[in-house]
Design goal:
The structure is a single chain. With about 190 residues, the chain is an alpha/beta fold. It has a single domain, classed as 3-Layer(aba) Sandwich (Rossmann fold). The chain has 3 helices and 9 strands; from the N terminus they run E-H-E-H-E-E-E-H-E-E-E-E. The strands form 2 sheets. Strands 4-3-2-5-6-7 form a 6-stranded mixed sheet, with helices on both faces. A 3-stranded antiparallel sheet has the order 1-9-8, covered by helices on one side. The longest helix has 18 residues. It is globular and about 50 Å long. The protein starts with 10 loop residues before the first strand and ends in a 12-residue tail after the last strand.
Length: about 190
């Protein structure tokens, strides 16, 4: 089913409000800033495309100097899949070196953990001083690989969510909240494409 002209019409319910996200991102920024006080080697590695909204807000909430780099990693087949394929591919690698740096991976959501486990090991192989993780959302009911997460915004139930950077078929990223997508938007009946 195609997305509605008004993306809010495709949302079953708002799971996390804009105000709650804003408050939690500010808290995370303060916590991360305190953990890296006096550190000028912190680099945020944002996982595209979903984490771009989160990293933009988070880096402004962290006091002190931070740098940013971007990676694009995928474990999904095609643009409209709701299930991970289990095979991780790097679509865009880092622009610079992280050797001797403190790396904070900024992720939008941890679902199975397969992608983030792969990415953590991949980045650790580039000889950083440290690799830690901050995620906006964690969905523990779907976890296959247990990975240590130092900072988490919200733990959520096993629902298909969009908004605040998260998408379905490249839609809904611009919503200012995290909402549960109506199942009719990602399931089809026989004969539908």
């Amino acid at each position: 089913m195609a997305a509605s002209q008004n993306p809010h019409d495709d949302i079953e319910s708002v799971l996390i409000t804009e105000a709650a996200i804003d408050a939690r991102v500010r808290e995370l920024g303060a916590e991360i800033g305190a953990a890296y006080t006096g550190n000028d080697s912190l680099i945020l590695v944002s996982v595209l495309k979903g984490a771009i909204v989160f990293v933009a807000d988070l880096m402004r909430a962290i006091p002190g100097n931070v740098q940013i780099d971007l990676m694009e990693v995928s474990s999904y087949d095609g643009g409209k899949s709701t299930e991970s394929s289990g095979t991780v591919r790097i679509l865009k690698d880092l622009s610079g070196t992280i050797e001797g740096r403190d790396v904070l991976i900024v992720e939008d959501i941890i679902d199975t953990g397969i992608t983030l486990n792969y990415l953590t090991n991949y980045l650790a192989g580039k000889n950083p001083r440290s690799v830690k993780i901050v995620t906006l959302l964690s969905k523990p009911a779907r976890r296959v690989v247990d990975i240590p997460v130092q900072w988490m915004g919200f733990e959520i139930p096993d629902k298909f969510v969009v908004g605040y950077g998260l998408d379905f078929g490249e839609q809904y990223r611009n919503l200012r909240y995290v909402g549960v997508l109506k199942p009719s938007m990602y399931t089809s009946t026989p004969g539908e494409e």
